[in-house]
Every structure is written in structure tokens, then in C-alpha cells.
Amino acid sequence: xxxADQALFxxxxxxxxESQASPVVGGLFISIIQSTLVLIAIVAVGMILYGGFQxxxxxxxxERLTQAKQTxxxxxxxxxxxxxxxxxxxxxxxxxxxxxxxxx
Length: 104
Prior knowledge:
By secondary structure, this protein is mostly helical. It has one domain (about 25-100). The protein has three helices and no strands. The longest helix has about 40 residues, at about 60-100. The protein is rod-shaped, with a radius of gyration of 22 Å.
């Protein structure tokens, strides 16, 4: 069986035993979460650029400067949250892989 065929193989969950469980579904779930985190990080970087643009075009108006600072603050906070979420997800994945490898 080729590697590409193995990646697409999803056994019947009703008839399989616990030792035959396929990691494909778990891998799909992890890929979706990681892709979502990357998308959110891209949006956060876009918001940082937007906040910088607001700051540069504020022309000293205190109201617009305050809005630009808030945009930058929350964009950086979002980036920190996404980075932390990615680190936690990576840690959990590594721990699950280690647990499943020891139990096989």
C-alpha cells in the first residue's frame, strides 16, 4: 500500500477494535485547529498594520490616537493569545502522541 493510500484510509469505527483506531481523524482535527490559529494570527498582524496606519494618519488628534493605541493593544493581545494557544496545542499533541506510543 502506498503512503498516499494510507493517508486516505479511514476504517469503519463500528467494526474496528481499539488497537485498530486510525489517527487520521485526530490529525484532521489538529490540522483544522492549527489552520484556524494561523488565520487568526494573520488577522491580528493585519490589525497591527491597520492600527499603525491609524496612528500615522491621526495628525495629532487625541481621539484618533487613542483609537489607534487601542487597536494596536488589542491586536498584540490577540497575537499573544494565539501564540499561547498554539504552544499549548503543540504541548498537548506531543503528550498525546507520547501516551499513545507507550500504550501500543
